[in-house]
Design brief:
Helix content of chain A: over 70%
Number of helices of chain A: 13
Largest sheet of chain B: 6 strands, mixed
Distance between the termini of chain A: 15 Å
Radius of gyration of chain A: 21 Å
Strand order of the largest sheet of chain A: 1-4
Order of helices and strands of chain A: HHHHHHEEEHHHHEHHH
Shape of chain A: globular
Number of domains of chain B: 3
CATH architecture of chain A: Orthogonal Bundle
CATH class of chain A: Mainly Alpha
Strand content of chain A: under 5%
Structural class of chain B: alpha/beta
Largest sheet of chain A: 2 strands, antiparallel
Shape of chain B: globular
Number of helices of chain B: 19
CATH superfamily of the largest domain in chain B: P-loop containing nucleotide triphosphate hydrolases
CATH architecture of the largest domain in chain B: 3-Layer(aba) Sandwich
Oligomer: heterodimer
Number of strands of chain A: 4
Strand content of chain B: 15-25%
Structural class of chain A: mainly alpha
Distance between the termini of chain B: 27 Å
Strand order of the largest sheet of chain B: 6-7-8-3-9-10
CATH class of the largest domain in chain B: Alpha Beta
CATH topology of the largest domain in chain B: Rossmann fold
Number of strands of chain B: 20
């Protein structure tokens, strides 16, 4: 008898799941519609210059969002990501100012610092078993504190960076900004890692069902640790990009960025309860938020709206996820309950 | 347990039935969950001033009945009469307001609040301006415990109190709202003999004050020690209600067992060497001195009531929990697995009781679930190949006849029976020699059940040593070559297939000493 109801149920489920899974497409669709409206009010929205400016800015958020997405898929969160970006940005800018390193060395320093800070998070969460939200709230404060101590009142001006360093942000290859290419590259590599390696499969398994994962002998501590370490590495990359993009760096760089990063991840369809979501989704989520910020300016609304809109977008995304999840569950438990 | 005067009790029972309106009267209650009928047209009266036992095998519908009275579930059919008046119990709050109190096996208290706060949660005595009258609350709580004749520091937090004390708090809670119906759901499962005696004294006192008490228990000796009447459920149906003075343990067991349905295609196949040998396995406080062997090609049933320690034994064998003493030999070699992965490598597979919690990753496709335990072996190099994965998954699910659109379907979209087949396929992909199945057919419909049974028989025929844990007596009897029965963490019987009857197993499972043909 139960078999007879299955097709109906799975039909309903699959429609809902399709909506859930096609988050990337629906985001792009919303962007097109919004873009259309905005371009009627502000025709300059449609210019190539504007597009590439939006994409370059969004790519910094996107790189950070890729790491954050990986962490959230394991049922975690990294609130310290803005402090990692900020600390890396200052260290990189300062070492360039002092001529300690060349630009390539600066990139290496940024990545290493990011990786180390990510490992600190991973250690506290996976080994000491501190709940992620508390652990990274703590490290957020610690990393930012270190940043303040190192930087003091000093500000590295754009002028003291090597000539051409800041110019990288404006460089195109075949008409596509370097930052955008870099982001696409990281999305491709990261997606391959999550989709097609044992580690990636384990990341999803740990986030989706930790108990089943442990019964299956999946090393969940190692998986969790690695996710935070990679998140730190990507935050480090975002920190270097931050220096390139903005040039002038002091101890408060990237303050408040976590909200945008988490918003991008959530809007991009990564389940806040872990277990599902894609890196492409997170990157498109970052682009989406970038477009909204840009549209606000062009339409003439105050930038101060931005913060509120990020929050609103997070709530909208999560509540729609919850609605979908609940109806899926309801359809599902109907015949398995006992 | 204390002895009683049977004549007096019989008198009370008869008297009550003749003259008193039942406090609670359930008439023709039915409840279905999907394809499973949990209760079918059951009726039950609870009289004021009686302790009424409700007994039955696992899955007989006792818990569902308790949940209906507690307002957790709504009956599909039937009427609930309170003092003769038809009444709806739409939710737990309404159930409490109607004077029904439930004490669960595991008390549901707030560990960080004080004893007094727990007793008066939701109806704390208020003082001026609606603030909580703390002193009044403590005094009232103290009065309640004095009434129960127990000592309690009512200002202390509940955390750290024993299970027995926590149950007393639940009972005090019931008293504080002057509950006239008290439901005790397996209250003695985790109590010591002394604590049980104290609980019974209190229950008798409440009975004498006119409270109607429903006592749900697996322990038949307690039913006779405490209860005036007993009702037996079987397969969600009412079998009998009678004064306990006119019943024997053997009667009760006969009424409990005798479930129908046994169309499982058990195949006799050659039984080989001893593969798994368990000697005096002990996990303190959970099970003790458990010994049994399983041979290649053999199905050994682990029978017992809920809480007998069957799954706990399995968890130790699979390396999820650690043992305190005893020995496990796999094919003659002593083994002690620090983690499930080690057990898997050694060739043990464990299909857990709760397939959603522990068995499957619902976000994954069928193929991803099937290959999850064998990823390292399947793909020793860096990258996974979806084509290989799909081929392996198809190969392993084909023999199980899983009804799916393809191995790319999400496993969450399958029916319970098909999900269970995927879990089986997953474990078999790891190529085990010993397979532990924990309640493999719970909650799946009869068609899928028969199929799962056929698969189990086929696997045994292929030479796997199988441990079958099941609360379904006919299933255990039909499938097993031998049955090991556990009662409260100890092996109470080992019964060969040709000597196994439902009565014998149930006797051993309830810890009843008398042997019975």
């Amino acid at each position: 008898m139960a078999e007879a109801v299955v097709p109906v149920r799975s039909g309903r489920r699959s429609v809902l799941m399709t909506i859930g899974r096609q988050r990337e497409l629906s985001l792009l669709a919303i962007m097109f519609v919004l873009g259309g409206i905005v371009s009627l009010i502000a025709p300059q929205f449609l210019s190539v210059d504007n597009f590439s400016q939006v994409a370059v800015l969004a790519s910094i958020t996107a790189i950070a969002a890729l790491g954050e997405a990986m962490v959230i898929i394991t049922r975690g969160i990294d609130l310290s990501i803005e402090a990692v970006i900020g600390l890396v940005a200052y260290c990189v800018a300062r070492s360039l100012e002092l001529h300690l390193v060349d630009p390539v060395g600066a990139l290496a320093i940024g990545l290493v610092i990011g990786l180390v800070l990510g490992c600190v998070n991973g250690f506290v969460i996976a080994i000491l078993k501190v709940p992620p939200i508390v652990a990274t709230l703590g490290t957020l404060s610690i990393f930012r504190g270190i940043d303040y101590v190192i930087a003091g009142p000093h500000q590295v001006p754009l002028a003291s960076l090597p000539a051409g360093f800041a110019h990288i942000a404006r460089t195109d290859i075949l008409g596509v900004p370097v930052f955008v290419l870099l982001t696409v590259g990281v999305v491709v590599v990261g997606s391959l890692l999550l989709r097609s390696t044992r580690f990636g499969r384990q990341v999803y398994a740990v986030g989706s069902n930790p108990e089943a994962a442990s019964i299956l002998g999946i090393p969940s501590r190692r998986v969790t640790f690695t996710a935070y370490a990679l998140c730190g590495l990507l935050a480090g990359l975002a920190g270097v990009m931050w220096v390139i993009e903005f040039g002038t760096i002091n101890g408060t760089a990237a303050t408040g960025v976590t909200l945008a990063v988490v918003a991008a991840v959530v809007v991009g369809g990564v389940n806040t309860l872990g277990g599902s979501g894609t890196l492409a989704g997170a990157a498109i989520g970052a682009l989406f938020l970038g477009f909204i910020a840009n549209a606000l300016i062009l339409v003439g609304l105050s930038q101060f709206w931005l913060q509120a809109i990020y929050g609103l977008v997070i709530l909208l995304a999560i509540s729609s996820d919850q609605l979908i999840r609940r109806s899926v569950q309801r359809a599902n438990t109907r015949s398995t309950a006992r | 347990m204390t002895s009683r005067d049977p004549g007096l009790d019989a008198e009370r029972g008869l008297d009550a039935e003749r003259t008193v309106t039942p406090r609670v009267s359930l008439v023709g209650i039915s409840k279905r969950f999907g394809a499973t009928a949990a209760l079918t047209g059951v009726s039950l009266d609870l009289l004021p001033g009686e302790v009424h036992a409700l007994v039955g095998e696992n899955g007989a519908g006792k818990s569902t009945l308790v949940k209906i009275l507690a307002g957790v579930h709504q009956p599909d059919e039937g009427t609930i009469l309170l003092d003769g008046v038809p009444t709806q119990v739409p939710g737990p709050a309404q159930s409490r307001a109607l004077g029904i109190a439930v004490v669960h096996q595991e008390p549901r208290l707030f560990p960080d609040l004080s004893v007094a706060e727990n007793v008066f949660i939701g109806h704390a005595p208020s003082g001026a301006l609606g603030s909580i009258d703390w002193r009044g609350m403590r005094r009232a709580a103290q009065a309640l415990f004095a009434e129960l004749d127990v000592q309690f520091d009512v200002g202390a937090p509940v955390r750290g109190l024993s299970m027995a004390d926590q149950q007393l708090i639940e009972i005090a809670k019931a008293l504080s709202v002057e509950a006239s119906v008290l439901i005790l759901d397996e209250p003695t499962a985790s109590l010591s003999a002394h604590e049980v005696e104290r609980l019974f004294t209190i229950v008798r006192r409440l009975r004498d004050r006119g409270v109607a008490i429903l006592f749900v228990s697996h322990r038949l000796d307690e039913v006779f020690a405490l209860c005036d009447r007993a009702t037996v459920f079987r397969d969600g149906r009412h079998v009998i209600t009678a004064p306990t003075s006119g019943l024997t343990t053997a009667d009760l067991i006969r009424h409990m067992v005798g479930r129908t349905v046994s169309l499982f295609p058990k195949v006799d196949n050659p039984i080989g060497e001893v593969l798994l040998e368990v000697t005096d396995l002990t996990r303190v406080g959970v099970f003790r001195d458990v010994s049994f062997t399983v041979r290649a090609g053999e199905i050994v049933g682990l029978a017992g009531l809920v809480g007998a320690g069957r799954s706990e034994v399995a968890r130790v064998l699979f390396g999820i929990d650690r043992r305190d003493s005893g020995e496990v030999k796999l094919a003659g070699t002593p083994v002690d697995f620090p983690a499930p992965s080690a057990a898997m490598t050694a060739g043990i597979a464990y299909l857990p009781e709760d397939r959603h919690q522990e068995g499957l990753v619902l976000d994954f496709t069928i193929a991803q679930n099937v290959t999850l335990p064998i990823l390292p072996r399947l793909f020793p190099k860096l990258l996974l190949r979806e084509s290989t994965e799909r081929a392996v998954a198809t190969e392993h699910t084909e023999q199980f006849n899983v009804r799916m659109t393809g191995v790319d379907q999400e496993v969450g979209a399958l029916s319970g029976g098909n999900q269970q087949k995927v879990v089986l396929a997953k474990w078999l992909a790891s190529g085990p020699r010993v397979l532990i199945l924990d309640e493999p057919t719970r909650g799946i419909d009869i068609g899928a059940k028969v199929e799962v049974h056929r698969l189990i028989a086929e696997l045994a025929a292929k030479g796997l040593a199988i441990i079958l844990i099941s609360s379904d007596l006919p299933e255990i009897l039909a499938m097993s070559d031998r049955i090991v029965v556990l009662h409260e963490g100890r092996v109470t019987a080992e019964i060969a297939r040709d000597q196994a009857t439902q009565e014998r197993v149930m006797f051993a499972a309830t810890g009843t000493q008398a042997s019975h043909g």
